[in-house]
UniProtKB/TrEMBL annotation:
Compartmental location: Cytoplasm; Cytoplasm, Cytosol; Nucleus
Biological classification of the source: Eukaryota, Metazoa, Chordata, Craniata, Vertebrata
Function comment: Acts as a specific nuclear import carrier for HSP70 proteins following heat-shock stress: acts by mediating the nucleoporin-dependent translocation of ATP-bound HSP70 proteins into the nucleus. HSP70 proteins import is required to protect cells from heat shock damages. Does not translocate ADP-bound HSP70 proteins into the nucleus.
Protein name: Protein Hikeshi
One Pfam family hit: Hikeshi-like_N
Length: 87
């Protein structure tokens, strides 16, 4: 249903489903990620008028809301802002 891309890494398309409404991509070396691309694979569209929020989180954090994807916006590039990083 989703794909994820970090510059310099292979595309990930095997998200792990951790709850009925939550999918997770394992991003090793997450401390060095500045941007992430999340995209719909096009295999399963969302119901009309619906979309999904995209969060960046690590360990037990609640996560940083990055934005969303939906049928009319099936991909987006998100900037990661983490504690200790500037800009």
């Amino acid at each position: 249903m989703f794909g994820c891309l970090v510059a310099g890494r292979l595309v990930q398309t095997a998200a792990q489903q951790v709850a009925e409404d939550k999918f997770v991509f394992d991003l090793p070396d997450y401390e060095n990620i500045n941007h992430v691309v999340v995209f719909m694979l096009g295999t399963i569209p969302f119901p009309e008028g619906m979309g999904r929020c995209v969060y960046f989180s690590y360990l037990d954090s609640n996560g940083q809301l990055l934005g969303f994807v939906m049928n009319g916006k099936p991909s987006a590039i998100f900037k990661i802002i983490s504690v200790g990083k500037s800009g």
